[in-house]
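Quick one from the shared queue. A colleague (R.T.) flagged Inosose dehydratase as missing a structural entry in our internal table.

Convert sequence to structure tokens.
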Amino acid sequence: MFNQNKVKLGIAPIAWTNDDLPDLGGENTFEQCVSEMALAGFTGSEVGNKYPKDIEILKKALELRGIEICNQWFSCFLLTKPFEEVEQEFRAQLTFLQDMGAKIIGASEQSYSVQGQQNTPVFGQKYIMDDSEWQVLCTGLNRLGRISKEDYGITLTFHHHMGTVVQNPDEVKRLMENTDPEYVSLLFDTGHFAYCGADPLEMAQTYADRIRHVHLKDIRSEVVQKVKEEKLSFLEGVRLGAFTIPGDGAIDFDPVFRVLEAAGYEGYMVVEAEQDPAKANPFEYALNARKFIREKTGL
């Protein structure tokens, strides 16, 4: 069993309001989102586009519901922007997270990413870095991770993601091997590994000692296959329901949970399953996800 004092459960607002596809859940309010998170039994949240920018307003709304911010996505452009510009944006986000009491920031390199391009196939179109770009990325992440840890007390976790320069197992391997474990950890996302054809269990076993944040999401294999065969974009796949909550798709979570438990994982495990809320009621799916995790982990 996981240590209930050291492992917490969160859920991402993307099931209620999608940052990349604003029409998905455009009618759902911030208050509805965080209220339903709490009702479903989650204590952590990541940050969505409808969350108040005023820290005191946000803190009050979350505290009323027993919710805390556990992580926020950060878009890195280390390959295409001067480091100083990236650092300035990074520090601004770290200041917000520090004020909110968060201990994790989730960075994803967005230079040349096709994940947000609605007409670009997600399979076969991703950018491949050369050796010099790999050096820029890894050096930059080490610098950001050091800033994050030493100046703010926050851990930088790197989010591998479909359509980005770090998507596939060989890319994750190269990044992990060429970054400092003291400053760069892994945001382990079951759904993105499965989507690109990797085995989430194998990835958990390989990087158990580097994982500091977990995204629990499942995939519908038939939808992913359709995305591949019909050369659809990542966002078209989201609309079609490529992702779903743990226990509702193709991934076997039992052995993944066992690996994380055996490794002594501490921190948040966050349900992050972007779907069309008009087709997949966010509150209903949150309740189902919470029930599944309780049954499988005892949390």
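The two ends are 8 Å apart (CA to CA).
DSSP finds eleven helices and eleven strands in the chain.
Added to the table.
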